[in-house]
Task: structure prediction
Amino acid sequence: MEILCVYCGDLFEASPRHKNQIACKKPACQRARKAEWQRRKMRTDPVYSAYQKISQKEWARTHPGYWKTYRKNHPEKADRNRVLQAVRNRKARTKNAHVKMETPLIAKMDASKGDGFQPLGQFWLIPVIAKMDALKVNIVKVPLCYP
Ligand SMILES: [Zn+2]
Result:
């Protein structure tokens, strides 16, 4: 029986031995599936999550300078992480009873310059309601003659 891959949207032949199969055999889809599995495991399994954190710390200790170099070579990833960390901090703070609302609610990522009050680019919409996830949006200029 053929089913749709949730990652690439292609049809693939489902293995009769694997129930609940959601991803095709393509390496990118398998990587996405494994990454999703790990993210869920980190969220739901405190023991696994604790071991992963220890293991990551140990790896970073034996590879000094790796993350510094990575951030230097991938400034867009560093920016993204800064924004997402702000979201995580906000979530952590709003768990406490004394909630303080903060600005900015919209973090500017790579907006093009010189547009006055017409910011274009990639943004993160960071909700005030703590339970909601941040949303990445791309704002583009549409010509006036657009149908
Ligand atoms: Zn796929």
Remarks:
- The helical segments are 27-44, 46-62, 66-73, 75-95.
